[in-house]
Design goal:
Length: 436
């Protein structure tokens, strides 16, 4: 296989592993609510749904290890706890969420069947593909993702050229902030540390690779995948904005059904009656590839913990698929509600780990990692407590004085300040240490 072809296949595989239920349902609604301010929402959304995840892929390219390597500079115990927590979150929230989205959008409108049947059949196929993970890159990169991208481009392309571009008045006071927070809901920063490991293991299984340095391949594929994600998000947000005056969403519906109804309306407006068929295919492909990536990454990690045992790989894949069947019966909105408090504390830690790992070694020593992660956790606690509704009055008063805390970003400046101060302090003591 030549290098160009391998880059494209890996790029498509990365794209499909990232692009799941939230990536498809959230952007059109963001554009719909943003109206004429859709560009600002796009910028915020892409910061947490494109930039941070692709930087995470670059960090994987640098480390070329597992997710354990992301946190080991803090301590091996921290990294173990972090990895187990991330994988548990992944197989209990974003993975089952894909089955829920497939049922609500692609199956129930046609068959009216129960969610348990959809999730059971869905995760049976996921399990089969995970067990054949050696063929994963070719399956995703050569077949599923190109079909997914073609359908997306049809909806976006026809939508942009056929709409009257009449959006609603924006519902957002700070559209860029709303975009950033909605980017959390894609789980793509977490996805980066999970699927990055999947890509590395899959590439190592490929004995016919034209790249001796897998890091070079991963970086180039990451850039193309990131560009693809940005273009698709821009198109979906723009189409959602431009059709705002044409599509009426029933306000009595739940948020997830509003998102589904909007996407269904966009598909019908752009592709006609066949739009629902394309939409069903689109959501199934997008969700399926993401679920496969999550469960494969989880099984890979625990396989590595137990001396590369294939039995452990199969067992974890089975348990993850079974959990997907159970949780996948919940509706999409319920799963998002469960996810929000978890994201308020896990997402900041993940973002900080990604950024620290991609920095040169001299700016990311063990002491820097430990100090910055500790501060990030401390300043994320108020957002977590607020999300579950138990934030005390004294803590709420203190939180009000923290910059950006009103937007759930109270951890940003303290983490940045800590990183600067620890690096300055270490530079000051280094000459003294040398003299001694």
């Amino acid at each position: 296989m030549n290098k160009t072809k391998e880059i494209w296949i890996t790029s498509f595989a990365l794209f499909s592993l990232f692009f799941g239920a939230g990536n498809l349902l959230i952007p059109p609604m963001l554009g719909y609510k943003a109206g004429g301010l859709w560009i600002w929402v796009l910028l915020g959304f892409c910061l947490t749904a494109v930039v941070i995840p692709i930087v995470g892929i670059f960090a994987h390219a640098k480390l070329q290890g597992t997710m354990f390597d992301f946190g080991k500079k803090v301590s091996p115990v921290f990294s173990l706890v972090y990895c187990v927590l991330i994988y548990l979150i992944s197989i209990t929230i974003p993975s089952p969420r894909t089955a829920s989205a497939v049922h609500e959008i692609a199956i129930y409108p046609w068959l009216g069947s129960k969610a348990i049947y959809t999730s059971a059949v869905y995760f049976l196929f996921v399990f089969i593909v995970v067990l054949n993970r050696a063929k994963l890159m070719n399956l995703l990169g050569k077949y599923l993702t190109p079909l997914l991208v073609i359908i997306l481009l049809l909806v976006i392309g026809i939508g942009l050229f056929s709409s009257q571009m009449l959006g609603n008045e924006s519902e957002f006071a700070f559209p860029i902030v709303d975009g950033i927070l909605e980017g959390y809901q894609t789980f793509d920063a977490i996805g980066a540390v999970v699927v990055g490991g999947v890509i590395i293991v899959s590439l190592n299984l490929n004995t016919q690779s034209a790249f001796e340095n897998k890091g070079e391949l991963i970086r180039k594929a990451g850039l193309f995948a990131g560009l693809g994600l940005f273009l698709i998000y821009a198109g979906l947000i723009a189409v959602g904005s431009f059709y705002g005056a044409d599509i009426v969403i029933d306000g009595a519906n739940s948020t997830d059904m509003q998102r589904a109804n909007l996407l269904r309306g966009l598909s019908q407006s752009t592709l006609g009656n066949i739009g629902n068929v394309f939409l069903s295919t689109l959501i199934t492909l997008a969700c399926f590839t993401t679920a496969v990536g999550i469960i494969t990454g989880t099984a890979d990690y625990f396989k590595g913990l137990f001396n590369q045992s294939q039995k452990v790989f199969v067992g974890v894949a089975f348990v993850a698929s079974a959990l997907g069947i159970l949780v996948g019966q919940l509706n999409f909105h319920s799963i998002i509600v469960i996810a929000i408090p978890v994201l308020m504390i896990v997402y900041p830690i993940t973002i900080v780990l990604i950024l620290l790992n991609v920095l040169p070694e001299k700016y990311g020593s063990k002491n820097v990692f430990r100090a910055v992660i500790l501060i990030t956790i401390l300043f994320s606690i108020p957002d977590f407590l607020g999300a579950i509704g138990v934030l005390t009055t004294p803590l709420s008063t203190i939180k009000a004085y923290i910059p950006l805390s009103a937007y759930s970003f109270g951890w940003v400046f303290p983490a940045l300040f800590t990183w600067l101060m620890v690096n300055v302090y270490l530079k000051k003591i280094k000459p003294t240490a040398i003299k001694k």
